[in-house]
Amino acid sequence: MNIQSIDVMRQSTPLKKPFKTALRTVYEAESIIVRMQASDGRVGWGEAPATIVITGDSLESIQSAIVNTFTPLLIGKNLLAYERILQEIHHSMIGSSSAKAAVDMAIYDLVSQHCGLPLYQFLGGYKDQIETDFTVSVNSPKEMGEDAIRYVREGFNVLKIKVGKDNILEDIERIKEIRSCVGSGVKIRIDANQGWQVKDAVRTIRRMEDLGLDIELVEQPVKANDIEGLKTVTDAVETPIMADESVFSPAQAFEVLKHRAADLINIKLMKSGGIYKAQIINHIAEEFGVECMVGSMIESRVAVTAAAHLAASKKNITRFDFDAPLMMLNDIVVGGVQYDGRMMTFPKVAGLGIQDVIHSESVVGS
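The structure assignment produced for this chain is given below.
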């Protein structure tokens, strides 16, 4: 079973509401979709959103990497030697983790189809359904409280709250308002997206602890490259601290874990370059006794389906952040992972279970 063709296309889908974090504001989900066809006629799917402020990847750079670097490398290669193929992808160029992820997904889709297994079973099969949180964008405390109430009424009982955009006093007010709106029965996670200074992070988290706001975890409170500062925060507070932007690669995961700089790791395929490296990160974390979450960027159900399959396959992946497709006005994917409120289930078919992707723009490269 060889790789016969690789086509790429752009898609753009408006969001129901602007997605705001300390790093950016997003109005529409834009990504590159990969359609990889094998010599036996099977089709594998992948996706890479442009998240330039986090990964450095734009739509243009993703498209160029896939069309000009990966396609010449991959055409004609035997998919059953996928270990060799994936190694070649990662060694073919520096960076471009999102483009690597899109091609990686399509390869795993095809290989697991060939084996006749849903991808989550091919990768380990630990769970057959998972539960996602829902993200509250950073806005005024009042608006965030109203959003939180709406999401809880829609059935979500884990909320991920974006902070770090203004000042720490405003962030405390945001969490106080949300907790008062949703009560004590809802889990609250906080994501500062690198928005706090080290001492401010310690002061803010301790204040939230003193107020009894019952925060499950705080994600990436300080700058991504400040591992020492991340450790300072982790050591100074009782609330678990999760590393996100600090961990792209297995080597970075090892550094964070070796120094005990975080209590948890957030794995994203767009950071790791796909499932291949994401599994390594999870295995390293598991050996350190550290649980992982798998999350996503603003992605359609193509990339989220791939990430969800990985997340369901592993015991050590215990938290799930896959709400992005629910934020979009239109669903471009036929098949793939399905939502029933906060619960996500997988079709009982081989691979990712994606049948087709409806796109608004023509194929732009092959």
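Interim note for the steering committee: Confidence is low (pLDDT under 50) at residues 362-366. The chain has twelve helices and 17 strands.
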